[in-house]
Fold these 2 entries.
Entry 1:
Amino acid sequence: MIAAEALYSDNHRSDHEVHQSALALRLERLCVLLGVEGGRLSTIAAAGLIPTVTLGEYGPDIAALEAAALEQPSPFVQNGPCPRAGFYIGLVLASADGRPAMLLSLFDARPRSAEVAQSTAAVASDVLAAALVRRQQAVIEKQQAVIADYEALEEQRRNLFDRASATAKVGVWQCDLSDNKLFWTNGVYDIFEIARTTPVTRELTLGFYKPESRIAMEAARAQAIANCTDFSLNVEIVTATGKERWVRLTGAVESRNGVAHRIFGMKQDITEEKLLGDQTRYLAEFDVMTGLANRAQFQSYLQDLGRHRIGGLLLVDLDGFKQVNDTYGHAVGDACIREAALRLKASCQSAVLVARIGGDEFAVLTASNCTAQEVEALAAEIVRTIAEPLECAGHVLNLGASVGVVQGSGWLAEDLFRNADAALYAAKAAGRNTSRTFKPAA
């Protein structure tokens, strides 16, 4: 257990009365640091948990996990799946006499990998312990403790953060704004792959940020200093050995009489988390075989036609594909789909969206500035380019394309698709390898 006083100010230790806004700010900072959506701090009483402050959406799933956290060793980690708590950490905080006093819950709807879950729990524990160490340091300084005790506490603080760095790739940084002098813990050196004995300056470290990330970071830092506030953002760096990494950067400004004099925070290597998130988003929006947008992304565009402002819809169906697939097998069939997608993408470079919406079915949404003549020309170009012979696995194959076209804006999504489908049917009825445009009834 971690001492509950780590979340309270010194003036209120005796009766544990905390100003709600200050406590909420501390909890919010902790959630931002750990990258979780919400948190809840509750007092442990005989009648049960009494909530003190809550951030994010709290529901029965989290309440059930809190009950489990009180019965398990701290920290208690639950890694999904629950509708509102795919990831949960419960930390029991102790009072001054060592008895359980409060429960800190941190939760997120998105599950983590097992490694990330355990690492985040370790960081949460170490951060709270580090907060206690800092508070104890202030008490010792006020009581004019001997310098040896102060140095021992400093060493304890460094050890806590070193452990956090080892488990979660986290490091602490500090910058004195009077002279821009930097202090890094070992974890930051390791993230940037710089020797731990290297003197670091702002000029040196800024060179590791990619241009867009450097601009964003400098802007967030300047705003935080001007307003004496906190900031958090994800940035991309290139390490001293040339590796590309994503880093979550958090910072807080310390002020005196309204003037910023120190800025400090944490850096965490989130490369694996970022890559996993990008891969998940890609699989949700793109067709793996062709790299085109998938049906889900196409449907999303259709449901938001007012914002996307398209000029028309072309539905494309491959002619002769079933015969190729049945004759030469799925491997050759898949190769035909990929080649058709490449040709379609090359022909529709100015389109708003090119998507694969079925086995051998594609859709093209044209830009709003595309004229009726240009849409007709695009349909003809698709028919022409798909009809070019295709060489695959020693075979020369011939495919075709039937294209149904609906021009103009102002359609409802279901009308747009239905009319394009009717035009596609007309193209097939006309002998295939051609296009037809839907004509509204007079």
Note: The mean pLDDT is 83.
Entry 2:
Amino acid sequence: MALEAVIGLECHIQVATRTKMFCGCPAEFGAAPNSNVCPVCLGLPGALPVANRAAVDAALRLGLALGCEIREESVFARKNYFYPDMPKNYQITQYDRPMCEGGALPVALAAGSRGFPLIRIHVEEDTGKSFHPERHGDRRISRVDFNRAGVPLLELVTQPAFRDPAECAAFLTALRRLVRWLGISDGEMEKGHLRCDANVSLRPAGQSELGTKTEIKNLNSIRGVERGVTAEIARQNLARLSGERIEQATLLYDADHDRLAVMRSKEHAHDYRYFPEPDLPRLRVEAAWRDEARAALPELPWTRAARLEREYAVPAYDAQVLGERRELCDYFEDCARGADGKLASNWIMTEVLRMTNERGWSIDDWARRVPPDRLREFLARVSARDIPGPLAKQVFTWLADEEGGVAELLDRHRVRVQASRDDLLPLVREVLNQNPGPVAQYRGGKIATLGFLVGQVMKKSAGQAVPQVVQDLLKAELGGQRPPS
């Protein structure tokens, strides 16, 4: 009997606010352990929470971008459970009346774009972070850092709409791009800014009823999600073949050893004893607030990618790469206006991204060094074949490190591009005289030999010859014709 996987994701997005969800403590990453805490986020008696407007704004932006229905009046609730990194022994979250419901995230897949439907997006607070087990003398201990406790989270819950792990990875990649695009979160999974739980079950192909699900908790990389879900599908398949019954449980995935372990039997909603948070009023998002947030939304990444393809004649792949970051997309458009879009895309995707990665620069850092008008001038010279390929890469590096336009940089470095017949014809004839074998091969019909001869001329010119001019001269000499003047 053929089985199919049914997968749903619960994504926890850490919101990039200055302060925590219900208090004024800094929400920064990397502070000394237990230094960003106060009576509110530690749950001390008498401390009263106040909701963070910036975090609610972030939820509203995300919900509108994904086409969710925004509830005018939502309710905060207490989710009660004990764990050492939960200082209050309950989490302030939303339950039966979340802020955002429905909606879908468009995801680019190999077979085309597909919208994955959502159940809800709600606002909540994060827990602390446990470090265990650790060795202290002859004892194994655990430590808890409460700095993260109370940091704002958006929990995005999908429908069980995924059928294979690759779809999950593509969804998370698209979600990370969107939260960065909207300025909601850095989306860096290794820092805990984006975390994911995956619910996995198997059922006979074609059946509508869901099988018994298991939940894999705290997957902290996109690759980890893909591998963890793959491992759980394989485990459930093997269990079914062995006649075992699948038990509802919460699992942990060890990415280092590609291994799953049962953490606890799966809880149900009633186990958490949800009830409305008595210290917080209902959260009201009135029509004027929604309209203001909708008007402030930027052009969304999937819409912009389609426009880049249409207006700048770049392939879908280029549009996806350029659209990974909004600032990168902005820079591309500023450079490509009135220029060759594909040429601009090639240089930005390869050389700009390579250099920023190597030097640890952001796109904004790069744009300050090489404003769009400087890169446009460079691209125009490359497009006109005024600068040969090897020299173009050198000029590109000078653009990043020095001031001045292309002509000024060439002059400063005493480089004279050789593009005239008088400059290049002596070099061409010298190469032909020194390479009788390749010349005979070319005249015998081996056209590919021309590339070798062009390379030899380029080498003699120290990379300063224009390749197209060299090629034209070689063809004329080899054909016994007088080269163009």
Note: Residues 481-485 have pLDDT under 50 and may be disordered.
